[in-house]
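Pinned message: reference record for Flavin reductase family protein
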Amino acid sequence: MDDRQFRNAMGKFATGVTVVLTEVEGHVHGMTANAFMSVSLHPKLVVISIDERAQMLGKITESNKFSVNILAADQKEMSMIFAGQMKQEDRNIVFNRLGDAPVLPGAIAQITCEVSAAHKEGDHTLFIGKVTNIHMEDSEPLIYFSGKYRQLAKE
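Predicted structure (tokens):
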């Protein structure tokens, strides 16, 4: 199989959309990611997968903490900004704080974590995060499927 076939097959798995944030020396850094999942209830652990070429890899390694912000249906623009598809300079992005971590206002879930382990696998590093705090909002999620943003159908 070639790389495109693999990517297309993985795109058939509908996911939520997250923005992962971290802070280094007072500067907030972020990236859009859909490679996120829960790992364990006891202790509360999640995992994010970061490409070895991503600048975010070094930022999380340095800060040893991150937040995962699960985006609401009306936050497509935030996803595009942190995916590098829209210029951030044109937008005044305001971050809230949850404990000592930056989070995106309006996200349906904000999850702050301390890195408990990092595993290099293939061309990505998997960061296991021990959950330190959670805040949730009641809203519909932004969905990504087959290379396009989607929303849940209304019942």
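Pinned by admin. Summary line: The first helix runs from residue 3 to 10.
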